[in-house]
Predict the 3D structure of the following.
Amino acid sequence: MVFANCKARSDKLQQILGYISKIAVILLLGLLCSGQVVEAAALPYSHGSLKGRNFSHQNLQGSGFANANMEGADFSYAQLQGAVFSASILRNANLRGADLTYAMLDQTDFANADLRDAILVDTILLRSTFDFTQIEGADFTGAILDPSQVRWLCQRARGKNPVTGVDTRESLGCD
C-alpha cells in the first residue's frame, strides 16, 4: 500500500517536472531567438474562473493562466508572450490579434474561439482542441502541434498575418 502511494507521487512529480521543462524550453527559446527575456509568471491567474473577463490590449507577458476557465474572455490584441495556458478553457474566447509567441497552450480547449490574426509562433499546442475555431491570418510558425491538429487546422487555414506577413497555411505546413 505504501509503495503504491509512492508510485502515484512519483508519477505526479514526473508530470510536474515535464511541465517545468517545457516552460524552461519556451523561455530559453524566447531568450535565444528574440534577444529578449520573456517575463516569467508576471501575473498569476491559474486555477481561476475568469469567464467573460476583459484582458484586451493588456500586457500580460509571462502570466500564468493554467487550469483556468476563461470561457468568453477577451484577450484581443493582448501581449501574451511566454504566458502559460496549459489545460485551460478558452471556449468562445476572443484572441484576435493577440501575440502568444512562446506561450504554452497545451491541452487547451479553443472551441469557437477567435484566433484570427493571432501570433502563435513557437507555441506548444499539443493535445489542444480547435472545434470551429477561427484561424484566418493566424501565424503558427514553429508551433508544436499534433499531426491530427495540423490536418484539422489546414482545412480552415487561409489569410496572411498582418503583423508577421506569414501565410496561415504556410505557417502550418499545409500541402
